[in-house]
Amino acid sequence: MGNFTFEEMNLMCIYNTGSRTGLIDSLREMRGELSPEETELRELTDSYLFYYFFK
Fold first, then answer.
1. What is the pLDDT of residue 54?
2. Which are the contacts of 50, defined by CB distance < 8 A and separation ≥ 6?
3. CB 53, CB 13: distance < 8 Å
4. CA–CA separation, 8 vs 47, rounded Å?
5. What's the CA gap between 27 and 12, in Å, rounded?
6. Residue 38 phi, psi dihedral angles, 5° rounding
7. How confident is the model at residue 2 (pLDDT cuts 50, 70, 90)?
8. pLDDT tens readout for residues 5-54
9. What pLDDT score was predicted for residue 49?
10. How far apart are CA 16 and CA 37, in angstroms?
């Protein structure tokens, strides 16, 4: 497991489906439902997804 922040770890626990690909799919789906005002959650989700796709 990488060096994730406390907030990223919480996000992973909330959206964990039992697999890494399931988690990524859940986060992508959730991100698509965010309103423009939810910038903090969007940034947190992006930081996690960025880690897996550009490490």
1. 65
2. none
3. no
4. 8
5. 9
6. -90, 55
7. low
8. 899 899 999 999 999 899 999 999 999 999 999 999 999 999 888 877 76
9. 86
10. 24
**If you count them, how many residues does the chain have?**
55
List % helix, strand, coil for the chain (3-state, nearest 5). 70, 0, 30
C-beta of residue 3 within 8 angstroms of C-beta of residue 31: no
Decide which of 4 and 35 is more confident: 35
Neighbours of 11 (CB within 10 A): 21
Contact of 55 with 39, CB cutoff 8 Å: no
Q: What's the CA gap between 55 and 41, in Å, rounded? A: 21
Q: In whole angstroms, give the CA distance from residue 51 to residue 23.
A: 13
Q: What is the pLDDT of residue 52?
A: 72
Residue 17 CA to residue 19 CA, distance in Å, equals: 6
